[in-house]
């Protein structure tokens, strides 16, 4: 498989400015808006040299009043909520604080794992450089995630992850503790996934280097459930983006 431009991170940087914000909206009422965040795009403007913009910047071009109600890691795709006014922001912030928002993520992990309502309850401490975390029973902050196996493949598993708390890199480090690191997450022990590891007959064109099936941490925020201003509970589901969709389709086709 030759270099696939659509899978390369630089492809996303070049195309971020082409994102039509309306195209990524999953839900909208007069108080809230939920989008399907593309991978490789920060939720908020980054402090470092700003290369790729942010979802918030795109959101404010659409509606200057929008405020991000939570955040997703830059590489993570999926359901991300915004509030349109201060009352809506407070309403959702309180739900997050009282753990009344249900977030469901899908992750492709290394190895075969049979997980049924497995709760990982291990405290997390950010490292001093702020780019990673570790488990620290003495100094870490309370963190809990529930995991369920959705589909088992040869050498890989599709897992549903439900974070009860909202610590940085929580799902990633908790899966690592289960010896189930997320595919393409070297920071926490995850290895890359190649089509040649799934297909029994695999021929690479001469003078080409095989590229991984996904070029980012294989984690997607699949759905978000919360109460809107009238008290009604809603669940907003985010379809897989192209790279995650291709990965799962190839697993379904060749990894069973």
From TrEMBL:
<feature type="domain" description="Pseudouridine synthase RsuA/RluA-like">
    <location>
        <begin position="31"/>
        <end position="176"/>
    </location>
</feature>
<dbReference type="InterPro" id="IPR006145">
    <property type="entry name" value="PsdUridine_synth_RsuA/RluA"/>
</dbReference>
<dbReference type="InterPro" id="IPR020103">
    <property type="entry name" value="PsdUridine_synth_cat_dom_sf"/>
</dbReference>
<dbReference type="Pfam" id="PF00849">
    <property type="entry name" value="PseudoU_synth_2"/>
</dbReference>
<protein>
    <submittedName>
        <fullName>RNA pseudouridine synthase</fullName>
    </submittedName>
</protein>
<comment type="similarity">
    <text>Belongs to the pseudouridine synthase RluA family.</text>
</comment>
<dbReference type="InterPro" id="IPR050188">
    <property type="entry name" value="RluA_PseudoU_synthase"/>
</dbReference>
């Amino acid at each position: 498989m030759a270099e696939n431009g659509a899978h390369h991170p630089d492809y996303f940087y070049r195309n971020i400015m082409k994102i039509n914000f309306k195209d990524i909206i999953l839900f909208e009422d007069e108080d809230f808006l939920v989008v399907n965040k593309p991978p490789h795009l920060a939720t908020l403007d980054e402090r470092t040299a700003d290369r790729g913009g942010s979802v918030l910047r795109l959101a404010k071009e659409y509606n200057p009043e929008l405020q991000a109600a939570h955040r997703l890691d830059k590489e993570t795709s999926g359901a991300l909520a915004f509030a349109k006014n201060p009352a809506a922001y407070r309403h959702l912030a309180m739900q997050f604080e009282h753990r009344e928002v249900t977030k469901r993520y899908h992750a492709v992990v290394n190895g075969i794992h049979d997980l049924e309502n497995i709760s990982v309850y291990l405290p997390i401490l950010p490292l001093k450089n702020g780019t990673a975390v570790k488990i620290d029973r003495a100094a870490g902050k309370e963190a809990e995630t529930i995991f369920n196996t959705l589909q088992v493949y040869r050498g890989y598993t599709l897992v549903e992850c439900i974070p009860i708390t909202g610590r940085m890199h929580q799902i990633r480090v908790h899966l690592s503790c289960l010896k189930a690191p997320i595919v393409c997450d070297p920071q926490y022990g995850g290895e890359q996934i190649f089509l040649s590891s799934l297909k029994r007959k695999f021929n690479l064109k001469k003078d080409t280097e095989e590229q991984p099936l996904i070029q980012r941490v294989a984690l997607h925020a699949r759905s978000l459930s919360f109460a809107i201003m009238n008290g009604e509970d809603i669940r907003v589901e985010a379809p897989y983006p192209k790279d995650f969709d291709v990965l799962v389709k190839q697993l379904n086709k060749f990894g069973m």
